Amino acid sequence: MIRNVITALLWLHASAVIASSPVSVLPAGNFSASGDLSMKKGSIPVSCKTTFDGEVGRHGAITVTAVHFGGFNPLCKSIKALGLPWQGQVETPGQLTVQDMQVKVRVPLLGGVCGPGPVTLAWTNHNAGATFDAVTLGPDCAMDGTMLTTPPVNIQPRLLSP
What we know:
The strands form 2 sheets. An 8-stranded antiparallel barrel has the order 2-3-4-6-7-8-9-10. The chain has a two-stranded antiparallel ribbon with strand order 1-11. 25% of the residues are buried. The chain has a single domain, classed as Porin, CATH 2.40.160. It has 1 helix and 11 strands, in the order H-E-E-E-E-E-E-E-E-E-E-E. It has 162 residues and is mostly beta strands.
C-alpha cells in the first residue's frame, strides 16, 4: 500500500514537471554538439575544436556526459572537463542553461579551474546550434563559439492542450 502511494506521488510529480515545461525538443535522445570554442583563461586565449556529448529529453532536460577538446593548438590538450555529467535545462526556445560547468586548464603558472557555475547559452533552430557569446565562468574564464548539434535538435514552445 505504501509503495503504491509513493509510486503515485512520484508519477504525479513527474507529470507536473512535464506539464510545466515551456518547451518541446525534437529529437530527444543522444546528441553531439561540435564547433570551434575560443576560451580565455586569464589573459591566455586558446581556440579548440570542441565536442559536447550527451542526452536531451523531450521537455528540455540536458545531460552532458563527455567533453572533448582538440585541434592544432597543443594547449587544447591541457583543457579537461570536470564534474561530469553536467545537468541543464532548455528554459525557452532561444535559451538553455548548463549547471555546474567546470573545466581545468593544466598549464604552469597560468592554469587553474574555471567554475563550477551555470552557463547560459543562446539557441537557434536555423542552424541547430548553441552559442557561447562572451560567456563567463569564474573566476577568470570567458568562452565564445557556436556548437552545432548532430542530429539537428529543434526546440519549440510546448503547445498546451485544452
